[in-house]
Amino acid sequence: MDPTKHPNPSPEEGSLPWLTDSAVELVDTPPEPAIVSNSGYYTGTGVADDDPDVAWPPRRASARLPWLLVALLVVGAGAFALEVGVPAYQELTTLRTRVTDSNVALKAARQELDAAGELIASAAVARGKLELEIAALGADAKLRAARIEALEAAKVAMAERLGDRIQRGEVALAMDGDALVVTLADRALFSDPVTLGDDGKGLLGEVGAAVRPLGAVRIDAHYDRVVPSALRATFADTRALTAMRAATVARFLEDGAKIEAARLSAAGFGASGANGSKKARDRDRRVELRVEAPATE
Asked: What is the tens place of the pLDDT at every residue in 75-103?
């Protein structure tokens, strides 16, 4: 380089004291064209990479190393993901399956709980009804007990009043469930098969007075198998005969004992046994009054 072109002025002339000749030479020297070697890498300014004397700029072959590291990192990350991620994904899938199963089980449990609630509600309703029925049964039992007590009291009163007739076998008293049965012998009531005698009317008057405070009265008439010859033209069989006898007693209780007709009913049962001895036939010819307890509120 020609020093005359770039004189080195002294500090007294106002130049920069630190600017050296080499620096000036670098500034004034135009850049040389870059050369690309056969390998395709940039090797410096103006000198091929096969020149052993060129030391600067350094070769760019070292740029391969970062990419190799990146590739190794990617491969390592993939391997780590396979080693760690796959079991984690499987575990996550298993957990999701468990959660789904738990939700299904929870839904089924809720349905069972709802069904149990409905059963409990139904059981409560049934229990309420049962308690009402038990209360009603208890009330019915108390009412029945009161009715039986009333009938027992009437039986005792009639036994005291009709003691002599009971002793002679003309009257019998017995309890049959919720009814008091008053059995009247044929010979104590009728002067003939269909006509009440005076003694029979007196007996019915006493019985009627005793049962008047009670409830309904059903008159059941019975007879043996033989219709008296004098009555065969009127009654074809003993059923028709007993129906007439029952109606005769009912009419007297209404008119003579003053028992309401609505409380009275009559039925004829015909023959009540085989024709046996005279004692058996006398027992068959009878009238039964089935007396119920008075109705209560």
From this structure: 777 777 667 667 777 888 888 898 999 89
